[in-house]
Structures are given as structure tokens and as C-alpha cells.
Task: structure prediction
Amino acid sequence: MNFSDLTLGHHFIPAVNKGMTSGHKLMIVLHGRGDTLDSYKTLTKEINVTGLNYLLLNAPFTEYFGYTWYDDSFDLKDERYLVSLQKLSEVLLSCIEAGFEPHDTFLFGFSQGARMVLDFFLQERKRFAGVLALSPRMSHFEPFPKIEAPINETPIFVAHGRYDPVIPFQETSKELIPWMEGISNMTFESYEMGHEIDIMEIQKVRLWLNEYL
Result:
């Protein structure tokens, strides 16, 4: 699959074992602040579902030894945040050109990346195969975007550690109230962990994905 026109650093992992699926689902994976896509190559093996392609992305801005999607800010007009949303729109167009429609595409993110996939999902107002946000930093929308079809038809999985020292669990659970009121197909899980991706969480993600592949 050719994604050579993408301006973001990326790595495509094709579905190896299609099993009983069509093998035509794609997961776009966004890392957290100061990280790189390389950290998620192993994660795709740990998720271990059949028939799923992966497109791992690097954020557009350098940060320490990795990359970042935006400055450490809730500002919805932050320049880096807006550029990152635009870059994700370009990625989605490239995926469509490569044959992956939004309804066949999962959006996956951790921490900063989780905020980006949630906000990008709201911006695009399309039905996706699913959205997975692990330990997300939640945007402070005023007012909160109205949830309507086809957005309401997209399954959403959100998980957070109860002892997260970076993005407090209370912050995410409080901001999730509007989502839970407006979205009919949402799963929210909490885990006895900090700011990380835990094996129990991965197992739950695997089960959740298998429902929609």
C-alpha cells in the first residue's frame, strides 16, 4: 500500500492473517507527547487481531527525543494543534485514495494522540469504524460539540488509569459526561495504573476490536 505522498513520518503494517475478516480495515495510530511511531510497532503485535492494517504516524513537530502534536495547552486555537488537525485530514484523504474509507478506519491514540483522535473525529463528522482513546487529554469545548449521526454511529472506546500523574483520571471522567450523554455506543474503562498502556487494557482493546472487524 502506497502512502508515499504523506508529509508526516509514517510506517504501514499490512494485515498478515485475514482470518474470517475481509482484511480491509485500517487503524491509524497516534503516539503521545515526546514519543515516536516506533514505540507502537510492538503494540500492534500485542493487540494481535486478524485482518487489521496499521498506519503508524509521527506527529509533525519535534519534541525532546520524539515528536509532539501540539504545545502543552488546552487552547483550541493553538497553532500546532490546528496544523496537526490539518495534517490528519491530509492523512485521511490519502487513506481514502489508498482504498480505506472512513467507515473502514479506526482512529487510535494515547495521551496527546488520544486527544487528537477524539477532536479529529468530531471535526470530520464522519462515521468511522471506531475510535480508541487511551489516557486522553480532553479538550475544553464551550459549548461541547453536538453529537449527531453519523458520529453517533461510531463505536468509541476510552480508557484511563486511576492513578495517572500526568493526566488526572478525574479530568477525563468529568469531561466524558457530555460524551456519554450524547453517544449511544461508547465504552469507558478504568484501570489500576498510571500514565501507561497496560496489558489488561490491551486485552480489552483486542476484544473490543474483534466486535467491529
